[in-house]
C-alpha cells in the first residue's frame, strides 16, 4: 500500500493586521493527503488561501493550529509545524523544493552560481554541479550571455525560469509549486511541463497551484478546491 508522503490535519492560519486591529482568518481546519509520487493540485480564486497552504508546509508561515506530517528521508515522520528551524533549513537544502513567481537571491550571485549551489547543497561534487547547471539553464533557454549576470538585471520571465531551474535541478523529494507558470510564454510553459513529467517519472511528489487550469489538469493526479480558506471537496 502506498503511504502518504504528506498529511495535513486540521491546519488553520490567521494573520493580525495590527494597524487596523483586525484578524484575518486565512485557513480553516484544512485536511490534505498526498501519496508518494502523486501530483496534487489546489484550485480556487485569488485570496482563497492556496499559497498560504504551501507557505505553511515550507514553514515560511508558522501554522496557527494543526499538524503537517511529512515522511522525511533523513528524519523519518516529522511534524513540519513543530520541528526546529535548523531541521527546516536542512530539509529545504536537500528534500523540499519551492517554486514561486518571485525570485529572492543574494544580489551579487550570478544565475549559474545559483543553480550550481543548489546542486552542491545536495552533496554532489563541483564537476557534477557544473554539468547539471549548464543542462538546466540550457533546458529553460536562458541565454548563455546571462549565465554570469546577476538576476536583478533579468526580465520577469527570465527570473521565473531561473527560479524554476534552481528548484528543479535538485530533483527534490517533495516539490511545492506556487503559480510557477504565471508570467511564462507557451514555449516556456511546455519546458516546465516536460521537466515536471520527468521529475514525476523519477519519483518526485508534487503539490501545486496554477492559474492555468488546463496546464494543471493534464498533470495532476487529484485536485482539491478551496473557497475562503476551506476545502470544498476533492476532484478526482
From TrEMBL:
Record domain ABC transporter: where: 6-235
Subcellular location, record wording: Cell membrane
UniProtKB keywords: ATP-binding, Cell membrane, Lyase, Membrane, Nucleotide-binding, Transport
Nucleotide-binding in keyword set: yes
Pfam families: ABC_tran
Xref: InterPro entries: AAA+_ATPase, ABC_transporter-like_ATP-bd, MetN_ABC_transporter-like, P-loop_NTPase
Gene Ontology molecular functions: lyase activity
ATP-binding is among the record's keywords: yes
Bilayer topology annotation: Peripheral membrane protein
Main location: membrane
UniProt family annotation: Belongs to the ABC transporter superfamily.
Protein name: Phosphonate C-P lyase system protein PhnL
